[in-house]
């Protein structure tokens, strides 16, 4: 199955964490907060929720702790319509991830509690229990590779998905605080990239895998030429370069008044994949993903801010349009 055919099937198995997000209301700094806004978080869970909101199907594979925070996450997955048959509740010292981040851009602070993270306990048995024939594509984000047994389990999921004919969609999503060292991260993320069919990352992440920021675009081009069918090289406010079928598509962003920097990448992935699933061409898909990213950074929360189809269409109708794409 080609990557596009798998995406058009619209049934995604998503591997990775779900967590609880807390953010001070009224754009306050955390140290001065008196009230908090609570929402579901975690890159993989956010992507899954974004896909469902845009009319597709998504099931999550991960572990949560047997406590109130883990139960909150299960309830939120139900609320968003994300399948959780393969979300295992575990007992022990491990805890579901908790993120505290500010709804502000200037002097933005995020504090991520991932010591003894429950999602890193996802095992070979968890991924081997999935019937991959019921899905059409697999998605994961890079943090899932940061520790064992989650790392080995995810690479096993890649093998099983490939055997079932599913394309692998990989969001590099490098978070230094989750890894034992940059050297381990570079080796493991590069290994994951080498076996993925669709790779999405920013210029810093590709540069990191390549061993230098000046080598990032060359790394993306090499992956597109040798193994991946689609590579999206994101460049922040400068837009993105998408490499697919021998073409380089350069697209801009939809400027908005951002209230926070978090959630953009997850929403981009959901919007991009949803547009491809709907049969839109590659440039339209990238731009719709970029619009979804802009919608999310302009609102509090991540999963709650992911747009539904009518919200996306209204945004595109009302917005004057994207900036020019990158020139490099």
If classified by CATH, what would the architecture be? 3-Layer(aba) Sandwich
Strand line-up of the largest beta sheet: 5-4-1-8-9-10-11-12-13
User: How much strand?
Assistant: 15-25%
Helix share bin: 25-40%
Identify the CATH class.
Alpha Beta
Alpha carbon gyration radius? 18 Å
What would the keywords be for this entry?
328 residues, 22% strand, alpha/beta, single chain, nine-stranded mixed β-sheet, UDP-N-acetylmuramoyl-L-alanine:D-glutamate ligase, 13 strands, 11 helices
In short:
The chain has 328 residues and is of the alpha/beta class. It contains 11 helices and 13 strands.
Explain how this protein is built.
By secondary structure, the chain is α/β, with parallel strands linked by helices. The protein has a single domain, classed as UDP-N-acetylmuramoyl-L-alanine:D-glutamate ligase, CATH 3.40.1190.20. It is 37% helix and 22% strand. It has helices at residues 3-9, 43-53, 68-80, 124-128, 150-163, 182-194, 203-210, 216-226, 264-277, 282-297, 309-318; strands at 11-15, 19-24, 36-41, 57-65, 83-90, 98-101, 110-113, 137-141, 168-171, 198-202, 230-234, 240-244, 247-251. The strands form two sheets. It has a nine-stranded mixed beta sheet with strand order 5-4-1-8-9-10-11-12-13, sandwiched between helices. The protein has a four-stranded mixed beta sheet with strand order 3-2-6-7. Strand 8, helix 5 (150-163) and strand 9 (168-171) form a beta-alpha-beta unit. Helix 2 runs parallel beside helix 9 (264-277) and helix 9 (264-277) packs antiparallel against helix 10.
């Amino acid at each position: 199955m080609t990557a596009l055919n798998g995406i058009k099937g619209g049934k995604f198995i998503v591997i990775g964490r779900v967590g609880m997000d807390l953010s001070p209301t009224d754009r306050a700094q955390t140290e001065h907060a008196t009230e908090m806004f609570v929402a579901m978080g975690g890159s993989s869970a956010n992507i899954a929720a974004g896909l469902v909101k845009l009319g597709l199907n998504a099931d999550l594979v991960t572990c949560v702790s047997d406590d109130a925070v883990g139960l909150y996450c299960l309830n939120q997955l139900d609320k968003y319509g994300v399948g959780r048959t393969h979300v295992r509740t575990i007992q022990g010292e491990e805890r579901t991830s908790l993120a505290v981040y500010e709804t502000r851009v200037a002097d933005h602070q995020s504090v991520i509690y991932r010591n003894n993270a429950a999602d890193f306990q996802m095992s070979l048995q968890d991924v081997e229990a999935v019937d991959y024939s019921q899905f059409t594509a697999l998605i994961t984000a890079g943090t899932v590779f940061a520790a064992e047994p989650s790392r080995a389990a995810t690479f096993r999921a890649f093998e099983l998905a490939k055997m079932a004919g599913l394309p692998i969609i990989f969001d590099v999503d490098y978070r230094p605080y989750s890894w034992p060292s940059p050297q381990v991260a570079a080796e493991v993320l590069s290994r994951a990239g080498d076996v993925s069919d669709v790779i999405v990352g920013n210029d810093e992440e590709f540069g990191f895998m390549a061993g230098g920021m000046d080598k990032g675009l060359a790394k993306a081009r090499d992956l597109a030429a040798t193994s991946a069918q689609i590579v999206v090289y994101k460049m922040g406010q400068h837009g993105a370069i998408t490499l697919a079928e021998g073409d380089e598509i350069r697209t801009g962003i939809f400027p908005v008044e951002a209230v926070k920097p978090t959630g953009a990448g997850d929403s981009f992935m959901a919007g991009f994949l949803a547009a491809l699933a709907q049969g839109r061409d590659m440039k339209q898909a990238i731009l719709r993903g970029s619009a979804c990213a802009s919608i999310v950074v302009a609102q509090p929360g991540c999963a709650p801010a992911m747009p539904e189809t009518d919200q996306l269409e209204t945004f595109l109708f009302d917005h004057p349009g994207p900036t020019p794409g990158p020139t490099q």
